[in-house]
Design goal:
This protein has about 350 residues and is α+β, with helices and mostly antiparallel strands. The chain folds into two domains: about 1-90; about 105-345, BirA Bifunctional Protein, domain 2, CATH 3.30.930. Helices cover about 40% and strands about 20% of the residues. The chain is built from twelve helices and ten strands. The protein has helices at about 1-15, 20-30, 35-45, 50-90, 100-105, 110-125, 140, 180-185, 225-240, 295-300, 315-325, 340-345; strands at about 130, 135, 170-175, 190-200, 210-220, 250-255, 260-270, 275-280, 285-295, 310-315. The chain starts with a helix and ends in a 17-residue tail after the last helix.
Length: about 350
Amino acid sequence: MSDLAQLENEILADIAAAADEAALEAVRVAALGKNGTVTALLKTLGTLPPERRKSEGPLINGMKDRVNAALAARREIFKTAALEARLNTESIDVTLPVREAPAEIGRVHPITQVIDELTAIFADMGFAVAEGPDIETDDYNFGKLNFPEEHPARAMHDTFFFDPKPDGTRLLLRTHTSPVQVRTMLTQKPPIRVIIPGRTYRCDSDQTHTPMFHQVEGLVIDKGSHLGHMKWILEEFFKAFFEVDRVGMRFRPSFFPFTEPSLEVDIQCRRDKGEIRFGEGEDWMEILGAGMVHPNVLRNCGLDPDQYQGFAWGMGIDRITMLKYGMPDLRAFFEADVRWLSHYGFRPLDWPTLAAGLSPP
């Protein structure tokens, strides 16, 4: 028994004398390793008579437990000392600003924000969102929408056409989102009430035009739809979108191949020191085109114009974004300038709702 006590004292003394973790590990291996002194004693238990095994087993195992405890305690001392040494060599400048979290730094593009606002407003009126491909056929983009063969919109200088196929037909980048109206009427039975936000493409580029831009169109088809319904929908939309109590509107006759009658819609505004305010003033601004869906379009889409009628409208998402949020140049929307986005962008969690308000505070 005295030999066990002496061995334990020697091991504990070596543990206490270890100067670092490497020295402590050497003590552990010498005592508890595969060929360690304590391990060797444990191996002899199997050769002892039962009486001696019963008496010496607890003593050897107890010594092993105390050695392990001493090793853990010494290891913790080294760990604490290392942490204190590192803290003493490191310093924190408490005057530096706190880094913003990624959710605070990231910004939602204004176009994405406004599409969400449009969706929230029209969803409250019972409209669904319809989508379609950016690459369209000439028939869906022009033919079924009552564009005559000689219409200037079909010209190469106005439309991005792909190379002709072997049969002579050509695909194109859609010039408006109206082909989705065609697709909707061909696949759904009235009543139809949809909005169609999406990208469109035309050969044009300046301060207020880009080769790719965003458009939203609305379509309502039913047996009793009329212009009075459309006027109310547009008025309620503009009041909600520009967040004003009232919006003055006027409707001027125009011409579009796919509507009859066709209308240009102006809204009342006030221009003052470079700012445009809606719902007040004596100026007018053209904002969109609209009209009753042409009977030929209804026929081309398999609907009987003697039974159904409807109305449609279309406006540029980029333009109404510029008007609402005071952005002077459309080209900046597509330049991917992080500085511009950090200024005009929206926080990711500021989701627009009619109840909480479309525009974030």
